[in-house]
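Model it.
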Amino acid sequence: MANEKPARAGNRREFVRTNIPLVERAASAIILLLIVAIGWAIYRAGHNADPNKYNVQAGTLNSTLLAVAGKAGTAPSAAPAPAMVPETASAEAPKPADATPAAGEVTPAPDAGAEGGGAEGAAAAAPKPALAKIPLEINLAGIKPMSDTEFYDSDSLYEKIDGRSPAYQSFNVVQLRCRSFSVLALPGSYVDVYEYRFDNPVDAFGMFALERDPKGKPLTFAPDGYSGEMGYFYRQGAVYVQVNASDEKPETLALTLAIAQNRAQELPVDDQGLAGRKKLPADGLLPDTVAYVPDNAQGQSSLKDVFQAKYKFAGAELPFFVMVAAPADTAKAWQSFQDFCSRFGKTEALPDVAGGKIFRAQVFGKWKVVYQRDGELGGVFDATDGDQARAFVEKYLQGGIK
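Modeled.
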């Protein structure tokens, strides 16, 4: 029948709890009272909040208004207590040290009597002036500027070369000046000219050597330079120049070469700090291996501003390095290097050659032959044949390798 209720299974009865223990009733009441109390506390806190509780207290920022003197200025060991200023900032408050002066405003020079002041302190704390933005003009027939000259400093360099900028910054790049020139005889063809200026010729050489293409061909118009399939790359003074063609058409490549030669003629020759580079002999030199090591060459803290390269000699490739410094410094570095090799390998003193002191050492299975003469220190390192390394160094000291 449709109206029949389903039968219960067996003798099973429905359970209804009618007797609640007093302990459970008390606990429930306490929980309800706590909920009400918490809600009332939140309500009161929201309607009686102190508006000044989370306001910024300007007085706590007084220390940030002081000028920073030198690299250690951000963490002084005994900084003077800052003068108190009103918590409400006013137009009379001192400016932060890095604030940019308004147009026509003159920034006062540091007080010579203050800590870090004077000519030396001012030179250390004052930022270097930005280079003038001189347009890149090239007076050659057959080309025409496609746009205005672009300028980038160290901080904005990433906008132009993105991921490569940190390497340039590590060598203290100062400015990039670049411009594109169209080839008038070939619509759509152009030549890009990049001139990276560094703080000195050594850093310019360091960046050039870092990016050197081992397949490049040496240039006749720039000693530190090479040509690639579609461009020319060289160091001239404190500038690292890159001239790239848009295509391999003969007319484009010819103008690319002409522009590269023009820049080498226009940019000043400056080899300051590159005395070590000039000491590297040309005989047997593998140009694509020339490198600059600013610090800790050969793992030695005393070897700085080192130039090195590989040489073809007696059927082998020998790495050779040169450091030029004060005679006292080279003598000290030579002795320190010899002591190091004695601790970790076997060292042998060799007879002097042409005024140069020499030692030979085998360290970790490789040979080193190191000389020191006046203000010059150098030698062969990581050679597999100790006699071959010795012959190279002795021949160099005698003037047989130039």
